Amino acid sequence: xxxxxxxxxxxxxxxxxxxxxxxxxxxxxxxxAEGVLEALxxxxxxxxxxxxxxxxxxxTDRGTPLDILIRLFLIExxxxxxxxxxxxxxxxLTSLEQVGLIQxxxxxxxxxxxxxxxxxxxxxxxxxxxxxxxxAENYVMGVGRSTLTLANLTIRRHSRLTLDLGSGCGTQAxxxxxxxxxxxxxxxxxxxxxxxxxxxxxxxxxxxAAFEGNLFEPVHGQTFDLVITNPPFVISPEMRYIYRDGxxxxxxxxRKIAHEVPSFLNEGGFCQILCNWVENSGQNWYERLAKWxxxxxCDVWVIRSETLDAETxxxxxxxxxxxxxxDRFAGRFEEWMAYYAAEGIHTIGAGLITMRRTSGRSNWFRxxxxxxxxxGPCGEYIxxxxxxxxxxxxxxxxxxxMNIKLGVSPxxxxxxQLVPSNQGWKETATQLKLTRGLAYVGNIDPYVxxxxxxxxxxxxxxxxxxxxxxxxxxxxxNIAPTFYKVVRGLxxxxxxxxxxxxxx
Length: 504
Fold this sequence. Notes:
The protein has 504 residues and is α/β, with parallel strands linked by helices. It has 17 helices and 21 strands.
């Protein structure tokens, strides 16, 4: 198997040294994530909005090479050809034009793609303006909300071979390259494959290669330690955009990936799927999803981030692609709603599915709503969630919990809400919070709060149950069932940890 090669020079320098020259030039003028944010005085690139062009042009009016690059590739305004020639010296305009990064139109230069410094990478991808052209079908998305969500939740342990399925411009593949010996990226859009290979070479990642094909076809016979995928999961009646529309009925593309991926996973290997799914009325959302994984040989954790009614869902996605043609919205909206009515779709869920291939025992399924906040990279906390669920599954009899010694998470804090009363401050609520990763929040009463603070890793739960019962004036046997349920919940969410999982 060889990486897909461009049929012409689009996104492919003839001289391999040009990738290094371009990368070194960007570094030398400060076209980096830190340099751009400092120059524009913004917190993140998402702060660059169309209605801010005048303000951003004012902040880039010094005429430095960095100013010119920001205007050209991020703000996307045409620049004077002479100014660009001077800014990019010793690089040549003709070289950037031939490779497909810019277009020269008489006295002006325009960007043919966006170039975004993101973390320690430079990423080339299509401008959303392409969605309003006759090339819209092949649009390659950049760093969007779904990109950031998957990147934040990806398990970042060492991987011998990683697969980015539906790579787009290759963001996930390049991020995974930092902890992978090799990365394969697959996309059925030839333009996406070209951009991924270009970005890999521009960022000096020779162990990343992109291949053209549908789903797992290009990697048939291979197995991976990690599969990450941000597929075209949108549930729509259309096949207008490769990046968005999977071309299958309802949520079948995500279900197909979940069904097929186990044969491409090594034992203990993970697959993480950013996904949309149908939620049927009269049925718990997780009951339908659980059936997707019957017979897969995988443990599964589904984290739901949101549920939208069909009308809101359709309107959101149609506006995403039809901003320049609002008069077409009503007709498209009715087409989508007619499709949902025919399919019996009323609400649509979204979230992350993480699968782990595990043989030799019965597999478990877990489904939760996401916490309101996910603070910082969360991959290690996804991994911890699997370890905690394994631990709980290994202790089927609640009475066996009594010999366990637990400690509190190093990220745990407690908030107390008090209101004024005639007797002074009156406590109305007590909440546990995690301050890193999957920042779950839970309400507790004073008895549970006192039990938690006594979890020092030295005392078995049996002693803590007895103390709680004594403080409540109850027999331990009477409160034991509730105690077991509360403790299991605290462990599952990561508030309490077995001693072997605690970190300094």
